Amino acid sequence: MTQTVQLSAPATKASGLSRGAGIAVISAVFITFLAASSAPTPLYAIYQAEWGFSAVTTTVVFGTYAVAVLLALLTLGRLSDHLGRRPVVLAAIAVQVIAMVLFATADGVPALLVARIVQGLATGAAVAAGGAWMLDLDRAKGTLANAGAPGFGTAFGALIASVVVATLPSPKHLIFVALIAALATQAVAVARIPETAPRAPGALASTRPHVALPRHVRRSAAVALPVMFAVWALAGFYGSLGPAVIGTLVGSTSVAFAGLGLFVLATVGASSVLLLRNQPARRVMLLGILSLVAGVAVVLVALQAQSPVLFFAGTAVAGIGFGAGFQGGIRLVIPQALPDERAGVLSLLYVVSYLGLGVPAVLAGVLVVHSGDLLATATDYGFFVIGLALVALVGLLLSRRTLDRSV
């Protein structure tokens, strides 16, 4: 049987914030980064009206962000093992601030694409280094924070941006100014978190793309990765085509509804992470898969009946699957990684997640343009997610032994 690896690592600096406070600060950075990634979702309708682009452009802009995150994870995912966690996270915050300025001053699709690329690079670097940092500070709390912070950030960004767009003046600028202020404040706190990864040679070599799983992690990863791809594919749907689908169902073009689906999905998902934190990882994953299938099935019925109430009810159930599936995957895999493997393994998990986030959404945008039928494409997308979830379920059930001790 695979043995669980002890992951405790001493901080190299005793001064500054406590370990618990450090995890809280890094979690806040995660939340801000993911909020920034979902903040443009309610703005797409405004951009589309002003600049006259199609649905496929929306998904390309969305997919560009995911691709940029992937590139950052593949090239920068292990950099903090050599330069230290703090320098990489602080650099990522600085680059994210640049992205916010680019969003606030964007005057067309090319500028929007550049902003998304810069944002994706910053996010990829931050989640790899920050995620490993939290695990260094406390394995159990760090694992929970890695599982929950993305959902809370996504929900927070979708909600706040929708409120700002619907009620406040200059929505294309105000939300990004607020995010810059939050990032600046967090940078000050990050500078006081104890460093846990002393400098080591090989920083340049670590930036060469390298995707590999240590042998002792592969069994759990084989079960976890299909689930993680599926749940983030669903998030990609709500972040790209979701606003248009909701607008069709409610019969309104108001931007107030644009981020509502993503908000419901991510809020329920993040809440389920907290509620299920003490359950065994395999049980959490099983619940996640079943909830994902059930929730998306209800959404498909809602699309056929054109019922917004049923749509949001199904979204809430699918949100349990989103949170439980992602949490279960993190908790199955991460406890197996050695201290010097954390950043690389976590990066790979995020690589698969962001592939799920970006690739299906872009393909769906292309299908919408070619078919002209938004709801039919959304239905096909739902069946695709259900299929992925069922593949994951088979993998989980075929695993005859307990994979790993969950956290």
Assign the CATH superfamily. Answer: MFS general substrate transporter like domains
Apparent shape: globular
Separation of the first and last Cα atoms:
17 Å
Rg over CA atoms, rounded to whole Å, is 20 Å
Mean pLDDT over the residues: 84
Number of helices: 16
Residues in helices, as a percent range:
over 70%
The biggest beta sheet, please? none
Number of strands: 0
The tally of domains stands at 1
Explained architecture:
By secondary structure, the chain is mainly alpha-helical. The protein has one domain: MFS general substrate transporter like domains (Growth Hormone, Chain: A). It is built from 16 helices and no strands. Helix 13 packs antiparallel against helix 16 and helix 15 runs antiparallel to helix 16. It is globular, with a radius of gyration of 20 Å. The chain starts with 18 loop residues before the first helix and ends in a 9-residue tail after the last helix.
What does the secondary structure layout of this molecule look like, with pairings?
Blueprint: H1 19-38, H2 44-51, H3 55-76, H4 80-83, H5 85-105, H6 109-137, H7 139-167, H8 171-190, H9 203-206, H10 215-240, H11 242-250, H12 260-275, H13 281-305, H14 308-333, H15 342-371, H16 374-398
Helix pairs in contact: 1-6, 1-7, 1-8, 3-6, 3-15, 5-6, 5-8, 6-7, 6-15, 7-8, 7-12, 7-14, 10-14, 10-15, 10-16, 12-14, 13-14, 13-16, 15-16
